[in-house]
Here is the input.
Amino acid sequence: MTNQRQYKVGILGATGTVGQRFIALLAEHPFFVIHALGASARSAGKPYGKAVNWKQTKPIPSVVRELVVQECIPERFKECAIVFSGLDADVAGDIEQAFRVAELAVFSNAKNYRRDPHVPLIVPLVNTSHFSIIPQQQRLHSPPLQKGFIVTNANCSTTGVVVPLAALERAFGPIESCMITTMQAISGGGYPGVPSLDIMDNIVPYISGEEEKIEWETLKILGGLAQGDDGLKAFDMHTKQPLRISASCNRVPVIEGHTECVSVRFARRPPPSPQQVREALQNYTSEAYTIGCPSAPRHTVFVHEEVDRPQPRLDRDYQLGAGVSVGRVRQCRVLDIKFVVLANNVAIGAATSSIINAEYAVLKGIVSA
Amino acid sequence: MTNQRQYKVGILGATGTVGQRFIALLAEHPFFVIHALGASARSAGKPYGKAVNWKQTKPIPSVVRELVVQECIPERFKECAIVFSGLDADVAGDIEQAFRVAELAVFSNAKNYRRDPHVPLIVPLVNTSHFSIIPQQQRLHSPPLQKGFIVTNANCSTTGVVVPLAALERAFGPIESCMITTMQAISGGGYPGVPSLDIMDNIVPYISGEEEKIEWETLKILGGLAQGDDGLKAFDMHTKQPLRISASCNRVPVIEGHTECVSVRFARRPPPSPQQVREALQNYTSEAYTIGCPSAPRHTVFVHEEVDRPQPRLDRDYQLGAGVSVGRVRQCRVLDIKFVVLANNVAIGAATSSIINAEYAVLKGIVSA
Amino acid sequence: MTNQRQYKVGILGATGTVGQRFIALLAEHPFFVIHALGASARSAGKPYGKAVNWKQTKPIPSVVRELVVQECIPERFKECAIVFSGLDADVAGDIEQAFRVAELAVFSNAKNYRRDPHVPLIVPLVNTSHFSIIPQQQRLHSPPLQKGFIVTNANCSTTGVVVPLAALERAFGPIESCMITTMQAISGGGYPGVPSLDIMDNIVPYISGEEEKIEWETLKILGGLAQGDDGLKAFDMHTKQPLRISASCNRVPVIEGHTECVSVRFARRPPPSPQQVREALQNYTSEAYTIGCPSAPRHTVFVHEEVDRPQPRLDRDYQLGAGVSVGRVRQCRVLDIKFVVLANNVAIGAATSSIINAEYAVLKGIVSA
Amino acid sequence: MTNQRQYKVGILGATGTVGQRFIALLAEHPFFVIHALGASARSAGKPYGKAVNWKQTKPIPSVVRELVVQECIPERFKECAIVFSGLDADVAGDIEQAFRVAELAVFSNAKNYRRDPHVPLIVPLVNTSHFSIIPQQQRLHSPPLQKGFIVTNANCSTTGVVVPLAALERAFGPIESCMITTMQAISGGGYPGVPSLDIMDNIVPYISGEEEKIEWETLKILGGLAQGDDGLKAFDMHTKQPLRISASCNRVPVIEGHTECVSVRFARRPPPSPQQVREALQNYTSEAYTIGCPSAPRHTVFVHEEVDRPQPRLDRDYQLGAGVSVGRVRQCRVLDIKFVVLANNVAIGAATSSIINAEYAVLKGIVSA
Here is the structure.
């Protein structure tokens, strides 16, 4: 990695929860260098250390403490090769589009473009093949783009479930149905986010829009990217082998780490045994890791043998939260196999995914220098 | 109720978590009078106020503060018509049997006799009809009994799910499959129970034996009690219409109230709509309430309209925790209908069930004076 | 109480946290009848059940569910004898003044008038004698008032500490210094209030303005109300016997109930013994209870003997939270005596205080019919 | 450090909470090498990975996973230069003595020898000068020892307060009185330790023996080590300048990190200003750091400027928890100055202190090779 060239990067929404994570991760990155920080007009003009209400457990990296926050305008970021977006959905749509038009490569954690038919929705441990739609995104844009594009990553709870599902489909062919019950951490709600009076000694069995996101995004991510008769690529939403997904989402009094109880039915009969499933999960490797993305985890899926794991407090920081933990793989009396997934919602479920996506794009030459 | 005669009752395991609940509830009961308290040899001989490490939010009832704790020996309870057992499973087997042999009516919260083919496993809001096996239990006992018998109530997480399932089967016929993911309160683990280091800011996705209990007990409770060719009654374990149940149990940092995400598939095609399910749940009434059991709730199932309810902290104490709350009734993309259940694990999930069972037995003349 | 006449009351800020408490308490009051509910323009015109995001553990009282919420304008409340204010401080100043001018008796939980030299700051278990300034408040008002006045109650953390301090001063004469460290519940911060990300698995050792409130309000409450040379009554701020108070305030992950570690030094030498202090606290009775205020607790101060009490979760609801709990009375190596106080911040620390104040005013004829 | 020789070390009580911390820290130590692990007979003979119920957030270090656990008998540890003890108090007395007699250097986190007049009680950021009593401890032992000795570190809550007090005494001379209210994390109670039912949504205002430890240990640590007329060194317990300490200890629902509200009165009049105190704290450096102990923190006391810090969740892991955080330095109306301290109870409050003590002893030649 020593002769790897460096890339200047910008961070949009730098004072928010996801923005703070981007900063904490990028401050020590081998080839991304934080060059510009963007936030709302209220913060613009202040040194980052004054503008931010820093809530991370590590101190503010010294490289950004005195960096002056900019408004989220492309001119301020023109020296950047890449822009990471941790913007809120209510402003992300327009700002990310402005940056794309300004020929910047945008890696977004926001939901706004996830359903766009030309924007890939990439969980970097799963479907980096979907990067192949970028040229079409640029060509069909009006005006056509040379370097600018948008790549999104998935919702935090979707991320946790698609990684093991991808591993299982790779090993055993299509999954036919999947039931998911999530127990999601409060950090998934941003800051100030969930009021303490709502969640201490409590469960809230509802998160607005979350079940729909899991049910829809999973299909786009696990589905193929097919060339149609018109010569255009299109996401097939897993329709070749219809996949029925039912999600129930709960907010729980956990700070970080989404736990999900998942049960699946395979198309193939007989279905694989729990032991075969365990091995398939453990052996699954992402292309991102194989090609050398520095933030990609060596163990894409870590399979726990202890009967009571994974647990968010003990397992969420393994590999800096970049992988996914699975445990309790066993037979299901209604579908075929059930298991427990843990994914760190603020790491692989958010900023880490964007960063691995950008690493992949750099290593594959998708981002121009 | 004014001319209702009074019944002297004893409580076994009176210093434990469930025992304390029995006392708190029975101290204000319209026709049960606490007469004797049993605990281990270590506590025996002390006034209850000294023997107990009282952990309830209400003060110790004055009627028991000076009552001297007894060893759990039938002679000490011979003036009692009824004995409630909150004993731990490691001692409940022998002690409850000794009390039955001594011709006492035992209403037990322990698991030991739940799988006994002659002992009914009764959730009083569901299957009071199973009391009809009591004469057979007495007759086949060696030696045969006149008044002694054992009735058990269900595991706390089973209780939450069988009430709405019973309501649905009454309205729409048999359920074919059922997926359950529980989020169970720490009080379900007794005292000292769950160490705080294990559960603060955490989820433990495993509770020993719990999934098996839900999967097995539900079948006994919802199944029939059929007369065989040999003239003997037997629990049919819902085998006339096989019911597949798959449970995933989690411990969560909630003090009281088990929340369960449930999804069901009906035998009948097409299945009922969410609105029909809501109405069936809301209209469901227990025989225990109908015949006048004073602790039976008026609303057996309370159906919430708000999208984010039930929540354990807000809803667990409704009707003193004697009913069950259901919310978020909606279609399931994998099975037919899904919803959220909340049941107070220390009320209807434990002591309250035993008490309603005893009230029912009194009102029906099953307990002799 | 049967021939007690009824009084129509209004509640300002009815949809807020304190307003909800007023409603829950007043819905079952022996002589106050909820007649009008006031809230912001956004809520006005809606039935209360629709306007409120009800967060109490008891269901909305049926008597208010359909009551249409009004704007906080005196004309809408003119049939009320009494108005309770749970308004936020940013609007309470003007609105409460408008109601006073309209000749309504205002019992306010807001801080705006607590430092007004003519408005009494009354903790009803302590200084009901300060009601005697009301005629002066009315006479000096411009224009002079016949019936309108404002009475405030104290900040929730002040309330907890002044009750035992008053008991000690009554028994042993003036206290000279007092050190207080609070551990305050999240409900003291209102709703949405404290973000869960700030307080789960955490302590925040700072609450804006809180230490100043305790240090100032305690002096006004425990001080005298002296007649000056100009014939006017004035609060002496305990200056006859200067009292130095030092408070350190912390927010802790507890839902309800403020715990405070208090240490005091008496003027009198030698100081009383821990046993004498215990007795003085236990024997202390409020005038509010003596004259028959129905919400005043029988045990003004409940003194715990167990070494590890009071605890917020176990003790905050004793007497519906209307009294104060004290425990661990023992010698202090720096001052004289130290102990632990628990007060329910949403009961005696807020709505219950206002209600007892109003009951007192009614029973004493200070409120005209 | 490259030519630093390596020292084999043993860990007693290796499967317990403190033992696990020792292992996590020592597995990456520059000159200590884990050589032997001791635990109870129940664990002895098993590979560590099987014997332990590992509860750390990092995986078990690979160097110990297969290491076979030994009984706590000196013969098993005779190749070790140093033994760290995380033993429970009920067995630590005899075992540590056996190891001392066997001429091993014992660095103990247990309380058993803290009050021994020949055993130093050393918080390594404060009183490393007390190591000078070791020769006397060895000489007066029967039989006299060549290499064996015991050094203890302080109770976790004592540690937090003595560091800033030492800094203040160094800068401003003796402190006369000190009031301390602690809010202590559950991890201070070991495992299983505090039951979740006791501490969720709760405060327990009592920790057995804790207040006495703070009041006594602080005097030994901050006091001098004087040569008497008999030629023997003795701890003076700060009696030259009597120091009155009053502690109130509370258990709070925080996982790690003890927060303490401290108020002090200096002997010197006038007392230092808050700004002078801030500077003295910030400038304080430990001898352990100066001489190069690798685990000693660069910032012995980190002084926060933000009004609401330190907070346990955000600040406990700064410098791996080896330093102490102070914030809110301000005047006290009763004593002189008050402030908030945060110390990581499982790091500098336990294992880290023992390790720095051992590093110091190695660098000073107190431990023989």
